[in-house]
Structure formats: C-alpha cells, structure tokens
Amino acid sequence: MKIGLVIAGILVLGSVTWLATRVLVVKTDLEASQALVDQLQAEIGSGDSTTLTATSTELQDKSASAAAGTRDLTWRAAEFIPFAGENLRAVRAVSESIDAIVQDVATPAVELIASYDITARDPVTGGFDITPLEDVKDIAATAQTVFEASLARMATVDASATVGPVSAAVTKVDDLLVKANSAVKSAAPLLQLAGPALGADGPRTYLLAFQNNAESTALGGSAASYTLINVDNGAISIAAQGAGSQDLIEGTKLDVAVDQSAIDLYSDYLVRYPNTSTSRPDFPTAAELMRAYWIRDKGLTANGVISVDPLALARILAATGPIDLPSGDILSSDNAVSLLVHDVYYRYDSYQEPEKIDAFFQSAASAILNKVISGEFDMNAMISAVTEGVNQGSIMAWSADPTEQQALDGTRIQGVLPKDNTASTAIGVYYQDTSASKMDYFLHTATTTTSDICVAGPTPSFSTSVTLQSKLTPDEANALPDYVSSGNYGPQLTSTKVFVYGPVGATLTDAHVDAAGHDTTVNAAGNDLGRPVASFTAYLAPGESSTVTASFTGAEGDYGPLEVRGTPMIHATVQDVEPACG
Fold first, then answer.
1. Which of 35, 229, 283, 565 is geometrically suited to a Cys-Cys bond with 396, CB 3.0 to 4.6 A?
2. How far apart are CA 174 and CA 97, in angstroms?
3. What residue numbers bound the domain in which 286 lies?
4. Bridging pattern class, strands 519-522 and 494-501
5. How much is the pTM?
C-alpha cells in the first residue's frame, strides 16, 4: 500500500514537473514567435528579402513547437484542473491559432514575396508577370478559412478566468484575428478583379484622368488632362493622350443620365464641361461623364476610369524617386505639387500657347507612367503611397462593368460617400472654385464637427463649421499670370462654393454665416446622394477668411463612428471632430 502511494506520488510529481517544463517551453516559444513576427514585419517593410526566408523558417519552427507543446496527454488532462485549466486551455488556443496563421498563411505569403521580382518582364510582351495573382487569391482564401477557424477556437476561451498575461495574449490574438479577417473579406472581391483588370482575360483600356487641385472641385480639381492606356496580360502602354481644353467639346450637353439633384446643386456645367465633371462628390458620376466625352468627341472608349491628382503623384514619386522630364525639369515628391499646379503657369501663357502647357502635362504624365510601368521603385513605399492616396481621395477608380463596379462597393477607391450610417457616420465637406481661377494654391481650409452622437440616442444632432482663408498677399495677387487669376473677378477676389453633406437621411436644420470675409452667402439647400446638403459661396480678397456653419438632425437609426470626408486640397484641410466615439 505504501509502495503504491509512493509510486502514485512519484507519478503526480513527475506529471507536475513535466507540465511545468512544457509550460516553460511553450512560453519561451511563444515569446520567440512574437519577436520573430516583429522581425518579419520589419524585413518585409524594408524589402530585405535576403533574411526574409530564414526568419520565416525560424518562425515556423517556434510556432510549431509552441503548438506541439500543448497537445500532449498531460497538458490536455491538466486543462480540467480548476483555475489552472482555463489558463492552459487559453494558452493552447493562442498557440494553435498562431501556428495555423504562421504555417498556412504567413509562410506561403513570405515565399511569394521573396520570390517575386516586379522588374521582371515577359520577353515577348514586356508585361508584368501576373501569374502570382492566382497564388495571392489562394492564400487569401486559405487565410479566411484559418482566421474564421481560429476565431471559433478563441471563442471557447473564458478570458475572464485567466491570469493577466494570458488574458492579454488572448485579447491580442483576438484583435489580430478580427482585423485580419475583416481585411481579407474586404480584399477578396478586389483580388478577384485584379487579374482581369490587368488583362489576364483579354485586353483592357483605361482612361487615366489627372485633376488639378489648384482649381478645386468636390473630388479634387478640374479634370482637363487625360491619358488612355492599354493593358494586355500585364503589358501596359499609352494609347492616346488629350487635354479637355483642346480635344473635347465644351458647352454641349452630354447624353448621360445624371440625377436632377446634382444638376440643381452644381448646374448643368456638370454635364457640359469636361473640367467640371468632377464637381459632384461621387466618382462614378464623374467617371461616366469623362468616358462619355471621349466616346463622343474622340471616338475612343474605355473599360474603366482612374483618377489621380498631384497630391497622389507626390506620394508616388517618393517611391519612384525623382524623374527627368523632357522639359529639363526634375520632378520629385518635393516639387510635384508646386510645379504641376502653380509654377508651370508662370512659364507658359496658357491663353496664348495652350499647346505648350498641354504638352508639358502630357510629357509629365508619360514620364511618371513609364517609371511606374518599369517597376523601378520601392515596393513597400509604393504600396504606402497608393494606400494613402486612396484613403485621402486622391486616387479613385470606376469600372464600366456593373459586376466589377459592385465589387468596389464599400472601398475608398470607389470615391463615394457611405450609403448608410451604420459602419460610419460620414459628414462631407466639399469645395468648388467658381472664380475660373487656379488660385486655390493659396487657399487654406479647416472644419470643426461636433455631435451628441455618444449620448443622444437614435436621433443625434450634428454641426459642422467650415473656415476658408486666403493666404495670398495683395502683391502676390498682382503678380499672378492671367490664367491663374480669377477669370471672373481678377486677381484681387476669389469665389468658392462650400457644400456640406449631412448624414444619410438627416434633416438640415440651420445654415448660417459666422464670418463673411469680403462677402459670403447662403445658397439654396439641396438633397443629393440621400443626404441633405447646405450650400454657401465665400468671396475672399487676399488675406481674408470666411466661416460658415451647417447643422443637421439625424433620422432615427443606428450610427457608427463620426468622421468627416472632403475635397483633397493642396493644403490639407485641418479637421477637428468631436466626439471620436459612436
């Protein structure tokens, strides 16, 4: 009997010792995995492919070891011990989830990144190698399966019954999985489009429009410079170029259906002049109009439209490095905005020799496009540049294929306001130069938005104040080229319309002028894109400022976090949003 008790005691002690050893090993492997994940992210971010594979291999070993350490019989049996068991179960869930992500998602992704060379070209077509897109789709599909399975596994853990460090690990992995799963779900439709968009299923043609933010419109600026590009199985080439002032017919209405609500707010200039096609804060409207101009006036069509402004180009040039232009200029991230929207107008008289300035813009567009096509850029910097450009409204895209366009729903690249208030409660603040000038180079803007959205219940109120300030001095105004200064008022006065879009379904309750500058008027209100719209016109002499305020009451319903979207301005609009809850 005593011998049996001794043996039992030895077995218990051995099991406890074994379990303690396993816990220590798993803890060490998990901590090493975390460090290696951070290292891997840094190597991907720096483009250091020389150590990427080695780090990935080590990470696989550590995550596999951590997961394996939680699968033996002693560990599983100990999971039934009160208090300690829930901690062990949580550690196993964390270990298995991390290992699944590493082995099934991160590893194949790293292998793909390490092996892909963006500068490689097909020897026949000269096109990008787009075959990895199929691998990307497969990895994304696997990722969604892994993330959902891991979320289900983590849901079985009672984090409230675990100690602090374990609880923190559970929360961290949970947050990672939720964000990653959401990102993969959002990206899946776009990944399905990537191959066809790059001509995998046949040639595509895209109209690339360049907006000039020095003459603001809701979506950025006047659109008067275009490049038509062909894409065929990864091969990209320029098919044609054009300038709205020279190649497209102005003043004749397009046969394109546009909501009367938009015409009421922006006049029929929206459908009669190419450069004002971007006046409505809805890129599908602008894209259909731009494409229709090219079909009508040039006999050329396109499968889609992409819009880029100089703010986006400056970010892209940070990735490509400076570019030599035929004019002798060196275009860089530092001078792109000033050169393209301001300095060039001091060099050429756009009224007397428009062909010279059009040629300058076309050569700049070709040089930038050819640099991007070459693949000679920092990939991570380019991804960051494009992502930031999309999020700021400086890069937008539209497809003429309804199915493809639907796949863009909910993405910022679509260039539309949210169709409801559920995911986010968006206020829109947009500007339109109405002085026929390029003087918004000197315009500074700011918005202050307040709401009781956190405490008001189902019908919150919203108030947005908008300030416009001319930073132009009287001397600078007198020195402006005729093409830059106001065609309607001369160099000493500008006029800018301000449009404030309330939340979906809301009611405009007040619109007033707080500070008039030279003069500021409240225009007739409207309703567009399912939202109430307050409209103002601010007239500013050099150095003056104006402030206007619009207030709304929300319809009964659910409201997501409050945000403000608006025109990407040369000098970014300073935004103050209170509260940040929702």
1. 283
2. 10
3. 204-397
4. unpaired
5. 0.85
